[in-house]
Specification:
2 domains; single chain; alpha/beta; 6-stranded mixed sheet; 42% helix; Double Stranded RNA Binding Domain
């Protein structure tokens, strides 16, 4: 029995049958180039699949690859004219990281990283018009620094991140405005959490 035939027996009946159909009478030469190509695809494809699958798992997370597991979120600074927005945004960011679960929120003295921020500006502009403005867009601009306390370096920062919301000028405007402001805060929260996971890109 030839070495190739023995290999066919070890790979099972299907492999043996495949070799038989692709070999000529003397049992040592391939019947055609086509059979040769099919042979390699038949036997080597499963091995290549396992090799590729072993290399397929990777992480784009800046926090995971750097070993950062905890974050502190001290009260943001407020340079805008919007009272208490820094507290509302701090609370939203804290809840955002808790819900995401990738980093555990802890006190500053226990944290691998610190998220520092300053509310720079809150701005309102007309969004749609009739005879007068029907809707307004309210934007919140935030400066953010995500700092690695162990390596003593900034992982990512943004000078002017923007979150926005749209609110109606009709009805109870103050209530509508607060809903628009809340939408801007939620959008900023999602952006900060997402950027932290990919290193700020």
């Amino acid at each position: 029995m030839s070495v190739v035939e023995g290999w066919g027996q070890r790979t099972g009946d299907r492999g043996n049958a495949f070799l038989t159909t692709c070999m000529n009478r003397n049992g040592f030469e391939w019947a055609s180039t086509f059979c040769l190509l099919r042979f390699f695809s038949f036997f080597l494809f499963p091995f290549s699949f396992f090799l590729l699958s072993g290399c397929a798992h990777y992480s784009t997370s800046a926090t995971g690859s750097g070993g950062i597991r905890t974050v502190a979120i001290p009260l943001l600074e407020n340079e805008s004219l919007e009272a208490s927005i820094h507290q509302a945004l701090t609370d939203s960011l804290t809840q955002g990281f808790v819900t995401d679960g990738a980093l555990r929120v802890v006190d500053e003295d226990l944290a691998d990283a610190i998220l520092q921020g300053t509310v720079i500006e809150v701005k309102e502009d007309p969004f749609t018009y009739g005879d007068q403005a029907d809707q307004y867009q309210i934007s919140v601009f935030l400066k953010v620094v995500f700092y690695d306390t162990r390596e003593k370096k900034t992982i990512w920062e943004a000078e002017r991140m923007r979150g926005y919301g749209i609110y109606s000028a009709s009805g109870t405007r103050e209530l509508n405005r607060q809903e628009g402001l809340n939408a801007a805060i939620q959008l900023l929260t999602r952006d900060v959490v997402d950027r932290t996971q990919v290193g700020g890109w």
